[in-house]
Structure formats: structure tokens, C-alpha cells
Design a protein that fits this description.
Length: 595
């Protein structure tokens, strides 16, 4: 008899660090039916499971939470952020697309995810939706939880749907029968998620909502279903459009208007009561902040000022993402979330110019740079850079301006990356304000470009309540579906332009079917994907967006990872299933190429 290791034979007892509730996975469905009022506690217990760190395999670490691992595993495998060197944290391995099946981020994520599914299954079997409108809504919430974890696991531990619906998916648990364990197909996984979300919508629409965006709702279920449809190739594009159109018709008016820089900067401080949020995991200070170093924000930001001096600040903006924003200095999203270490900027009127440079003995790329008096601006608009080569000899490079797709970029003629196919052998140069060397550059190898999307809730530099679903994605989901359907480019651009207007871009920055080609785009879809990249950067969307559209993920940028381009068919996309699961149940491991 095979059992999934995440659940085991006995139902485990759980104690939440911040809620007084019956343990979600310690009550049987029969007990729930005998005590209907307990359903609120067991359902609230699942909300806590997304953020609590629980003991597992003799580990009880503050960093072991579902949401932290979800955001790290999703975002680190894209091309928005750059890790600044070797780390003992296991996020390094998925970031580098390395094949390991025994890292704590993956096996804890797998374990706690099935714990959530198990708890939802028990509630679904035990809650009577006719008891009250509140009971109906809570039943829908549990269907949502089960669908969400299955979706997260399918997108991370299986190949993209567009690679084949018959490929191995994950272990599906939709019910209380745990007697056998086997992997469903990717297609069956997606169909089960659709079915659960439709049930979630039905019961929550018939029920009474329970509060602010800390709680899931029928709107959240529809938004997740639209995301699901978008990931299923071209089979459900009209369904995605219809669902998003329904949602947008009832969206708060504020999410269709402009956001100021101040409003965007304030957003991470109280996501749960913002009109922009559809659902977030609400972390309460100080209970849900056992460590300022074990949060999502701690990797993106470091406050080196006394008395804080907290955060790791090891995940930086990718230079090419910065270049996307630099096309329009008015973009308030960049103004709100891009920063340096607080004491880094010199404000001396001088420039720092960085460029990718590949070491002879490494499979990663570091930052070459010149700053201060070693950067000279020339009359023709070019910059002369004085830098030390690998032998310590001072050499001179020239970064020359060039208009690329209507935007001025800079390139060094020499090939410093070792890749002749990258910008035709030239080296892109990035122009920034001058920074203090000790605070603005890490280990003399990486410029510290910090991200504050997950910072400053309750005044804490690395604390926030991470958003799972929000309105910006809904507009872009419809835009992408329109672009992929063909014949709806202007509809796609209308949604893209709304997102750009929200960000403060002028009407002259709008896209139309008559100007996108002149701006360097081959299709409306490419326009949408760039806008998704900017709007949803660091929120775990990028990898899914690239691969579901059968694109290549270009990871030729500065960072401690291989200099490579990853095809959507690359088997490394599917994370290896934790060895604990393989050993306990005997299911097949994700395959790898033999090269």
C-alpha cells in the first residue's frame, strides 16, 4: 500500500503560532459534521498553514513557510532577478536549474502543500453548505485551497501544459482516499483544478464573504481560474477572456485609474485592505515575523542603517529588466520599488557604468564597472570607462549610444561575455547614478539594485503580506488571451495601455496596432509579455509567462548562474520531486536529458 509521505498514515496534530483554532488536519470529516461551528476554525487553520513554519525532519526554521518557498521557487527561475553569489540557502539550486531532490525548500514545500490539501479534503467532506451562507462560503474556500496548491505544484513540479497534456503531472488528492499514490497526467491535474475552482465559485457566490482580502472569495477563485486557462495552451483562451471581462466589469473603480508613486510605495505596507488586492496571505506583526531575515523581502532588501541593519539583500534587479523601465522615466512602478542600499547613493552628479563580464574559470557572469572619475562623458554622447582587467592592468573601454527600438542604449564594442551571439558580440553597458563602493556594490562583483515590493509593513524593512492574486494580473491575463487568439490586437493593447496609464505613463506611450512594430516588437503578444514582466516582476509570474508561450528564457545576464538560454521544452523546468516522496511512495522521478 503506497502512501504519500506528505500525509502519512496518521493525521498529524498542528499548533498555529498566531490563531486559536482546531487543527485543520487533526479533525476528521465526521467530527466536523458533528460540530459544524468548528469549520470556521479548521478553515482559518489552513490560512495559517500558508504562513506558519512547522517542524519537519528535525528542522524548525523560521524560513520554512509555504509562501516563502512558493515565491522563491517561482521567481528565482525566471529572468527578473539576479543572485549575487554563492549562498548556503537552498534557493541557489533551483535558481541555477540544478538537479537536486533533497533540498529543504522543495521537500518542506511539498510536505506542507499536501498537508494543506489534506486539511481541505477533510473540510470539504465535513462542511454542510446548507447549514448557513457562512458554511457555504467556507466550503468554497476549501475548494479554492485545494485547487491553488495543486496548481502551484503542477506548474513547478511538472512540465508546462504546452509540452503535452499527457506528460507526468503530480499526485492528485481530491478526496479522503489515500490508499494509493500515483502521478496523474498534466492534463488530468489541470482538469481537476478547473473542477475545484468552479465548485469554489459556486459555493462562495451562494455564501457570505468573510472579510477583506485576507480571505479568499469568488473573485479570487475566478482570477485563479483565468490564470489556469491561460496556462493551458490555446484551448481556453475565450474562457479566459470571458472570465476576465466578467471580473473587470465588477472591479473597483480605483484599479482602473492612475496610481501615484506614493500609493505604489505604500501598497506593500497594507496589501490586505487595498482595492488592488484580490487575495493576499495576511501576516500580522509581530506574531508572523519570528525573524527579519527569514522573509521574502529579506532577500531583496538590506537596511544597513543602524539600528536596523537587517535583511540579506542578495537578490538584485536584472539589468535588462531595468532597461525595460528606463524607456519611460515616468514609470511610477520603477520609482516606487527600485532603490539602492540607503546610504549608497553619492549624489555627486557622476555616473556608474556597469557591464556583464564572464570570468575565464566560471559558469556565471559578474559585473564589470567603472564609477566616479573613471567615467568620462564625451562630446558625442559616448562614455569612456577606465577599468582594471583580470591582471590588474588599467584598460579603457568606450560605451557608445545606439538607438534600439526607439530607445537609446549603450554598447561596448568588445565582446566581454564570451558569447558572440549575444548582441552580436558586443557588450551592453548600463548607466546609473554613482554609488559608494562599500555600500552600493557587493564583493566588488555585483551592483546592489534593491527591490522594495515586499518591504516596510509595520515599519519593518523586510516584512509584507505577499499578494497571490491582484487586479493588475487580471487585466494582463485578458490582454495575453486576446493577443494569442489573433485578430484582437487592439483589444490586447487597450488592456496594456490601461496598465501603463495606471503606472503614470503618458498617452504618447500607448501601444496601437500601427506603432508596435516601429517600437521593435514582432507581435502584440511580445508587447503583452514585456508589460507583464514589468507589472508583475518579482511576483512569480515570469517563468510561467515565457514557457506557456513557447518562448526561450534568456538568462544571459549578470548573476551566479550559468550563462544560457533555456527552451520551453527543457526537462529541467520541472523541479525534481523530493527524494522523501520517491522513497516513500515509489512514484517516478521527473526525467532529465542524457547530455
Amino acid at each position: 500500500m503506497k502512501k504519500i509521505f506528505a500525509i502519512g498514515i496518521a493525521l498529524l496534530t498542528l499548533v498555529s503560532c498566531n490563531m486559536d483554532f482546531y487543527s485543520s488536519d487533526s479533525m476528521t470529516s465526521a467530527q466536523l459534521k458533528e460540530n459544524p461551528s468548528s469549520a470556521v476554525y479548521t478553515t482559518d487553520g489552513i490560512y495559517a498553514l500558508f504562513k506558519d513554519h512547522l517542524p519537519y525532519k528535525d528542522l524548525d526554521e523560521d524560513s520554512n513557510t509555504y509562501i516563502r518557498h512558493l515565491f522563491q521557487l517561482s521567481e528565482s527561475r525566471g529572468d527578473n532577478m539576479s543572485i549575487s553569489g554563492h549562498s548556503t540557502d537552498p534557493f541557489l539550486h533551483p535558481y541555477r536549474y540544478e538537479d537536486l531532490d533533497n533540498t529543504k525548500n522543495c521537500y518542506y514545500f511539498w510536505w506542507i502543500g499536501y498537508k494543506i490539501i489534506n486539511a481541505a479534503n477533510s473540510n470539504i467532506a465535513g462542511i454542510d453548505p446548507t447549514e448557513s451562507k457562512k458554511s457555504s462560503h467556507m466550503l468554497g474556500e476549501n475548494y479554492f485551497f485545494r485547487a491553488l496548491v495543486h496548481f502551484n505544484f503542477t506548474t513547478l513540479f511538472a512540465m508546462p501544459y504546452v509540452c503535452g497534456a499527457d506528460n507526468p503531472g503530480i499526485v492528485v488528492r481530491r478526496g479522503m482516499d489515500y490508499s494509493t499514490t500515483e502521478r496523474a497526467t498534466v492534463g488530468d491535474c489541470y482538469e481537476g483544478i478547473i473542477e475545484d475552482l468552479k465548485e469554489a465559485i459556486k459555493y462562495m457566490e451562494a455564501g457570505t464573504p468573510r472579510g477583506d482580502a485576507s480571505y479568499v472569495s469568488a473573485t479570487a477563485a475566478k482570477a485563479l481560474l483565468a490564470r489556469e486557462y491561460l496556462n493551458m495552451g490555446d484551448t481556453h483562451l475565450q474562457d479566459c477572456v470571458d472570465l476576465c471581462t466578467e471580473l473587470i466589469g465588477k472591479a473597483p473603480a480605483k484599479v482602473k485609474g492612475e496610481y501615484t508613486v506614493a500609493q505604489l510605495a505604500e501598497y506593500p505596507k497594507h496589501t490586505w485592505d487595498s482595492d488592488e488586492t484580490i487575495w493576499c496571505v495576511h501576516l500580522v506583526y509581530p506574531t508572523d515575523l519570528p525573524s527579519t531575515e527569514a522573509t521574502i523581502g529579506a532577500m531583496y532588501y538590506k537596511d544597513g542603517l543602524e539600528p536596523n541593519n537587517i535583511g540579506w539583500g542578495e537578490w538584485y534587479w536584472n539589468d535588462e529588466l531595468i532597461e525595460l523601465f528606463n524607456r519611460y522615466p515616468e514609470d511610477r512602478r520603477f520609482q516606487a520599488y527600485f532603490t539602492y542600499e540607503p546610504q549608497a547613493i553619492l549624489n555627486n552628479g557622476k555616473k556608474l557604468i556597469s557591464f556583464p563580464e564572464k570570468p575565464d574559470d566560471g559558469d556565471y557572469c559578474v559585473t564589470g564597472y567603472a564609477k566616479g572619475d573613471n567615467v568620462i562623458e564625451n562630446a558625442d554622447g559616448s562614455y569612456t570607462l577606465k577599468v582594471a582587467d583580470k591582471n590588474g592592468k588599467i584598460v579603457t573601454h568606450t560605451a557608445r549610444p545606439e538607438v534600439v527600438n526607439g530607445y537609446t542604449r549603450y554598447f561596448i564594442d568588445e565582446n566581454l561575455t564570451g558569447d558572440a551571439s549575444f548582441w552580436n558580440g558586443r557588450t551592453p553597458a548600463y548607466i546609473h547614478d554613482d554609488v559608494d563602493e562599500d555600500n552600493g556594490i557587493r564583493n566588488s562583483l555585483y551592483v546592489r539594485y534593491y527591490n522594495t515590493k515586499f518591504s516596510f509593513q509595520d515599519g519593518q524593512p523586510t516584512f509584507s503580506s505577499p499578494v497571490i492574486l491582484r487586479w493588475g494580473e487580471v487585466f494582463l491575463n485578458r490582454a495575453e488571451a486576446y493577443a494569442r487568439m489573433g485578430g484582437h490586437d487592439d483589444d490586447a493593447f487597450a488592456d496594456v495601455n490601461l496598465i501603463r496609464k495606471r503606472a503614470g505613463l503618458p498617452a504618447s506611450a500607448d501601444f496601437t496596432s500601427g506603432n508596435y512594430a516601429a517600437r521593435g516588437y514582432e507581435s502584440a503578444l511580445d508587447v503583452v509579455l514585456d508589460e507583464r514582466r514589468m507589472e508583475l516582476c518579482f511576483e512569480g509570474d515570469r517563468m510561467l509567462s515565457v514557457f506557456r508561450n513557447k518562448k526561450k528564457l534568456d538568462r544571459r545576464f549578470v548573476g551566479y548562474h550559468p550563462w544560457e538560454v533555456i527552451d520551453y521544452t527543457d526537462p529541467r523546468i520541472a523541479l525534481k520531486i523530493p527524494a522523501d516522496e520517491i522513497n516513500a511512495s515509489g512514484i517516478d522521478q521527473n526525467g532529465r536529458s542524457t547530455k
